[in-house]
Amino acid sequence: MDCRQLPLKILIGLAATVLGIILVVGLNPRHSLFTNKVNRLTDGPGLRFRKYGIACTKPFDVPLDAASVMPDGPPGFSMEIAFTSHHQGNSRFGILFMFHDGDDDAQLLMGQWRNHIVVMNGDDFDYSRKAPRVSTDLSELPQAPVVVTVTTDGEGTRLYLNGRRVDENRRLTLSFPGGGRSSALVMGNSVYGNIVWEGEIHGFAVYPHALAAADVSKHYAEWLENRDFSHALTAAPSMLYLFDGRPGAPVLDRSGRGRHLEVPTRMTVLKRQFLIFSPTDFSLRSAFIQDVVVNFVGFVPFGLVFTLLFRRGPLRIQRHAIAFAVILGFAVSLAIEIGQAWIPSRSSSLLDLIMNTAGTGTGAMIHGFFCRETPFVSDAPL
């Protein structure tokens, strides 16, 4: 068929529609640019985290482990958290809390994948690198508050669920990030704003020593009795949040060290990523394959329509219509990926840029399969 018979106004309309759809889909912030989805509970202490929520401290320099706080005392530290999860069954990894100093490999976190609670250093979320961790399964428990305690020292790391030891890794000693840089505590999300967890956090404490099993059991019994973390006040915590303040106010650090937890009014990205790429991202998981296909196929109409449009331009543009379409597709995709670095819930990906550009090129080449070539006659003045 002779595609030059298509009315120019219709072609311009198609190009504008395709471009508009791509921009809306690519930059859709899903409301996360506006309201931070974190609220105080009204029926007890705690914060409720919904999708696209975050709470965080300002960066702090004081170490939290025994080696720094009490050099002559026993090594190690403990973390204790009470929460109600609404993340069960979610195939995407979500972060309950993390300590981050700018280095993903050093970050210390507790996260959830489906029904599994995971504690580790680093960013091996899908366990593809087999990084050491401790974990437990919540699937046998009702959807109610649970208390998870982690203790680590020179003898390994132990994980307790409701006062009972459920996992141990003698080859793993957890560590807080630092290395001369300031760290921040982030809850309900990552520093990038795109690894969300949904649920309620009722209490959180860090101790500069490894709790004994009897202490863990005692703390859980006191939690059952009082339904708060007031028991930690007498256990020399390095950080302590009771989540008992008024709405709109920071969550106070009751350890007295001033590392208060803030809930921004708007969803906040603490660290931005531009065109990230890692060979470990490649997998046969359905989510990865779907993402690749969508980014490729989504730009095929763009390449086709804009090649047709450039074929109707001045003679010097007609001759290089495919090249112009591919360059424009690359530029639009690059702008979207840069914009996504500023939008919570989105990720700026080099692979997406590559697949978008490849899709544009494929759409431009499709033009030659069903559009009969005609002599270059410009619709526009030279």
From TrEMBL:
The chain crosses the membrane at residues 7-27, 292-310, 322-343. The keyword Transmembrane helix applies. InterPro entries: ConA-like_dom_sf, VanZ-like. Residues 285-367 form the VanZ-like domain. Keywords: Membrane, Transmembrane, Transmembrane helix. Pfam families: Laminin_G_3, VanZ. This is VanZ family protein.
